[in-house]
Amino acid sequence: MSLALTRLLQLASPALPVGAYTYSQGLEWAVEAGTVKDESTVLAWIADLLEWNQGRFETPLLASMLAACRAGEYLAVRNEYFLASRETAELRAETVQMGYSMLRLLGELNDFPKAALAPLHDIEQPAFPTVWACAAVAWDIADDAALTAYLWSWAENQTMAALKSVPLGQAAGQRLLLALGSRIPAVVERALALDAADFSNFAPGFAIACSRHETQYSRLFRS
Fold first, then answer.
1. Phi first, then psi: what are they for 124, rounded to 5°?
2. Which among 69, 123, 139, 183 is least buried, having the fewest CB atoms inside 10 angstroms?
3. What is the Cβ-side half-sphere exposure of residue 111, based on CA atoms within 13 angstroms?
4. For the chain, domain boundaries
5. What mean pLDDT, rounded, does the chain reach?
């Protein structure tokens, strides 16, 4: 057991006050459209996002951000790259709001090493994964563990959004997390080895869902 492990659990906790629970990232519109309607279609939707959006872009970019935080350079470039990849106003607003909340939270933690936030000082709008990466580095969390926790937290949030919007029962939620969790190690392994030239978040169905959510008549979530 180690202090790094407990800090990692804190970073991945749904109790982290950054507002993640208020976002569905297009899932709510997929439910409205009938694309997602039961446990099997929820799993297909989230697993595809895990494989393509997270596994081939956001997670390898997060690994690159961890390295940039350690080196104290090029973090701003990676942050702008991530912001540019947000294909809708809601997705961009989500990561900027969560990044702001995360940065403010770290500033209020008495024992957090404030010097670790130095690479963020010159970034006008730090994205959530950018700030999250600096926190993981400050707490000496290994890259593979950090990526695993980040993906788990994302999958848990997507599952909870599905439970509320489909809706599904608690047992279904645990089955979904069991299935998604079994896929995360392979996604992390590939993300750590993926060359930057091969990063890709090409997922037009996801982009359309997020765009349509912006004008959805009735909704629970902010994205």
1. -65, -40
2. 183
3. 3
4. 3-10+25-213
5. 95
Residues 6 or more apart whose CB falls under 8 angstroms from that of 110 comprise none
Cα torsion at 110, 115, 120, 122 (round to 10°)? 120
The distance from CA 18 to its chain's CA centroid, rounded to whole angstroms, is 12
The tokens 């994302």 sit on which residue? Answer: 154
Residues 127-180 pLDDT 10s: 999 999 999 999 999 999 999 999 999 999 999 999 999 999 999 999 999 999
Q: Which CATH class is domain 3-10+25-213?
A: mainly alpha
Q: What is the pTM of this model?
A: 0.96
Residue 52 CB neighbours (<10 A) = 16
Query: For residue range 78-109, what is the model confidence (pLDDT) as tens digits?
Result: 999 999 999 999 999 999 999 999 999 999 99
- Rounded CA-CA distance 157/167 in Å is 14
DSSP string, 75-120: HHHHHHHHHHH--SHHHHHHHHHHHHHHHHHHHH-TTS-GGGGGGG
Cβ neighbours for 98, distance < 8 A, ≥ 6 positions apart: 18, 19, 20, 128
DSSP state of 204: H
Under a CB-based contact definition with an 8 Å cutoff, are residues 208 and 198 in contact? no
